[in-house]
Fold this protein.
Amino acid sequence: MTKRTYLIVICASVVVLLSMGIRQSFGLLQTPIAQSFGIGLAAFSLSIAVQNLIWGLSQPIIGALSDKYGSGRVIAIAAVFQILGLLMLANADSLWELHVSTGIIIGIAGSGMTWAVLMSVVARNVPENRRTMFFGVVGAAGTGGQILIVPFNQYTINAFGWSEALFIMSIVMVVIIPLAYVLKGKTEDHSVGRKEAESLLQVLDRARKHSGYLYLTAGFYVCGFHVMFIMAHLPNYLSVLEMPEWLPGVAISIIGMTNLLGTVIFSWLGDKYSKKYLLSILYFLRSIVIAGFITFPISEYSVLAFSFFIGFLWLATVPLTNALVGQLFGLKYLATLAGIVFASHQLGSFTSIWLGGWLFDETGSYDLVWQISIGLGILAALLHLPINEKPSETKVPQPA
């Protein structure tokens, strides 16, 4: 491990921390923006849902661009578009501007500054036997944004208003642009042997026929459904229950703090034990925690306890899933393959964010979405069990 390796891990962690911290703050914006525009909760929920869907659908394309042209350029350009999207939202005065800025521009920008691209950067710069652990460090930094960025944004929203808070967020995002230079490079520059002889289309063909890859993709849909429903709708859920105003921001921060611990622990275990079994355990425990939360009476203490335990299970799935994709197919096209899996994650995010907002406007309750979350968690736990963790092999034609 060289000093440059540690520098790359630190810079990647900062990029993910800032990018994810901003995204995890959109739940705090739902109520003030809805009140400012005089619209129902479903309208801005749709903007956030579109953001997550576009983020996911564009991820394989952005991942492929990163594999081909280098990660540094992709990260820098994505940061510029993220800033433009925040500024457009801050000055929006119509519903279509909410959808374009929050949904489309910020959605696409997220693809260049989050898991698939950044995990690919880390993968090519750390030892293979410690890869999952360093994935965990970067993954933990992502929800570290909940500890630092979300409470800061909650303060700026309360103190200055949502529009000014977005302007402040855009200034913070400028930090990412110079960090992109440190994170430049292409994974194929570090690949040797057979993997150089395999094209992207060939590895995509292998992946679509690999049942384990399909199970991982389906399981990550559930991950997105869980985390983004909670992130987008927990603040309003607590508001409806007339919980104290300080509780939503603190709850999200606690999720971030315990996620740091959970992600690092599960990532460390991922270098030593079966990743598929660890993923099954994570999804099953999520269902148990959610079931307990909605079964017992809601109070300040139950919310804090729920935040603690769900945070421990929050995004430990990310390093394990990305590491297992790399284990199955190698690193050369990791950003692309992980991007496809992440697209499923964001499809789940879109579903839960939109469904939560629509059902709340229709029924005044989130009960059905909580119940669906429990069932999906159990399904995801079962889906990971049959995955074959041995590296996928392909026959490369030998020269005559």
